């Protein structure tokens, strides 16, 4: 354990890092003027010495530079159940903690509340910048917040996020890979259980799914929109499996719905993967402990969150930053996918 | 979707709730003077009308009344993997969202940093109160923060939390129940994989475990402290199973370690539950999707977090509040526990 952080001063940090006190201040205030390498060295030294900028070193009348805002329009329960957002937040926090910054987290009911909240936070000088997530098509946050001058990173495809610097994954390519993989296993009726139909990334995935099904000459199969939770994932799966043309494979938009879908298959006497193949999305630890294990479109969500935070600090520091694509989810085949019933392996 | 929250005024909320504007203000500022029932009615109406207190309605020079602080001395990665804190935070957020409040979340490296941070947040008028977690024995936060006048809820047993109002679960009784259950199944060598040895609740569980083992005349069996993550849970399980006196049952301090332990058992050719019984703690969805499913000491962690937030609002409002115990985790027997090898059911 390091000594008391109150004994170490900014002078000590500057001396150890071989820079001026001003450079330490610039680094911690996320202002331009120090290179990324120097900034990282300063953070490393501060961490080693246990030093953090104190209230007295910051003018309380000016804007907070050590707080980032994140509003989520999601039910509280889902936040604790769906691994995506907590893993994403853990990635954000990993970068914030290095820089002695905090996350101001709020659950909102709708985008009107979110817009009002960001205006309040920004005008109240509460936050240095904001992370916007879950973009809709024609998202009202774009016109409402772009004139504020608030540093923003938008988590979503650049076609959705207006002028804000975007960080995104290529959902369309990932969906295409999932469908092609199942088609190669001989599946002809592939359904999809998606997220809320008004989310931009749901729309992108739905389009890519329909396009790939058509391109491959597969049977047209239903896509069902849900609220991402286990119950809706189970209900959607039950509906699909009770339909006249039962699919032989289902692609899910997250992992808890795929886990629930596997449960429904068992309850209906279907064996996964012999009778039904399942592909999950996001690939948390859940996918590795089910029986059978779940094939998934896998990406490093913690790293995704960390990248979002890093890009936001660049934006706050006034560094010119364009969009930034993180790695595309890629298929990890596990025990829940197999050749379609009656089809040999391709 | 409700209309724009900027069109609805505090007057509308007061009229609809049948109270004065002042009462609405008191409710949202978490001040005494309105009953809990009235407060809840005001929140319900505000929610219905889509109204939230705006920046202009709050004096920016005064203390923020709509932000609660939470510092966690945990690795960022663990926050995304261990279901406990996600579910706990989702519970806190469920209550905060109802009251249009936000959570200021920070990961800290040690308690010195945490103490300095809370002093800064409180003196900087950033937060209305704080949630302190992961108490140690002789926790330095008690002497350092008790003189601040900051409203605090301490999540931990009252023997650890000094003068702060505490919200806690009875860990000792829960450990005793777990050991008694396994002993009733004929197990004589029961080991425990615990959390970090310096955490107060680890100490309480370790003592209760040792006491129960002695009271029941069982063989003295090892308890191993870990950092709560999967790797350490796996390593501890491997060490226990390679020892001369292999235990026939293991109690874990969370669920991801129990899941990892089940994996280690399989890797060593042991069948759960025939050769080895496992009991998890906290009982997230993980325990229900493993094969076999995991018996667990189960409690509603989301509700625990919500209770903590509610008690904190009472403290902020100046309402006298003593300690508050939430329900004790209770055993949910599932597929990972069975009579000890060679023992009949008791």
UniProtKB/TrEMBL annotation, chains A, B:
Residues 324-346 are annotated as: Disordered. It comes from the Bacteria. Pfam families: LacI, Peripla_BP_3. Keywords: DNA-binding, Transcription, Transcription regulation. Coiled coil: none annotated. InterPro entries: HTH_LacI (IPR000843), LacI/GalR-like_sensor (IPR046335), Lambda_DNA-bd_dom_sf (IPR010982), Peripla_BP_I (IPR028082). This is LacI family transcriptional regulator. Gene3D superfamilies: 3.40.50.2300, lambda repressor-like DNA-binding domains (1.10.260.40). Residues 8-62 form the HTH lacI-type domain. PROSITE patterns: HTH_LACI_2.
């Amino acid at each position: 354990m390091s000594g008391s952080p109150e004994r170490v001063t900014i002078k000590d940090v500057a001396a150890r890092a071989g820079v001026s006190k001003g450079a330490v201040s610039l680094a911690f205030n996320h202002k331009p003027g120090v290179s990324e390498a120097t900034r990282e060295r300063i953070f490393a030294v501060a961490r080693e010495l246990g030093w953090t900028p104190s209230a007295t070193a910051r003018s309380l009348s000016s804007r907070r530079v050590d707080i980032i805002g994140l509003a989520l329009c999601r039910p509280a329960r889902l936040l604790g159940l769906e691994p995506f957002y907590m893993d994403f937040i853990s990635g954000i926090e990993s970068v914030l903690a290095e820089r002695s910054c905090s996350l101001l987290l709020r659950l909102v009911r709708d985008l009107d509340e979110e817009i009002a909240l960001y205006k309040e936070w920004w005008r109240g000088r509460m936050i240095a910048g904001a992370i916007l997530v879950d973009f809709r098509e024609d998202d009202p946050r774009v016109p409402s917040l772009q004139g504020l001058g608030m540093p923003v990173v938008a988590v979503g495809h650049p076609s959705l996020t207006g002028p804000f610097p975007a960080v995104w994954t290529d959902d369309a390519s990932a969906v295409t890979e999932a469908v092609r993989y199942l088609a190669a296993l001989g599946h002809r009726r592939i359904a999809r259980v998606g997220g809320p139909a008004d989310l931009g990334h749901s729309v992108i995935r739905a389009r890519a799914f329909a396009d790939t099904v058509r391109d491959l000459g597969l049977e047209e199969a239903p896509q069902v929109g849900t609220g991402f939770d286990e119950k809706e994932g189970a209900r959607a799966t039950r509906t699909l499996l009770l339909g006249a043309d039962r699919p032989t494979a289902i692609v899910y938009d997250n992992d808890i719905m795929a886990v629930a879908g596997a449960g429904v298959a068992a309850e209906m006497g279907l064996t996964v993967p012999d009778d039904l193949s399942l592909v999950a999305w996001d690939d948390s630890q859940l996918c590795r402990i089910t029986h059978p294990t779940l094939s998934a479109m896998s990406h490093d969500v913690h790293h995704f969150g960390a990248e979002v935070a890093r890009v936001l600090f660049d934006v706050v520091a006034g560094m010119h930053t364009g969009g930034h694509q993180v790695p595309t989810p890629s298929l990890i085949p596990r025990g829940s996918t197999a050749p379609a019933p009656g089809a040999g392996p391709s």
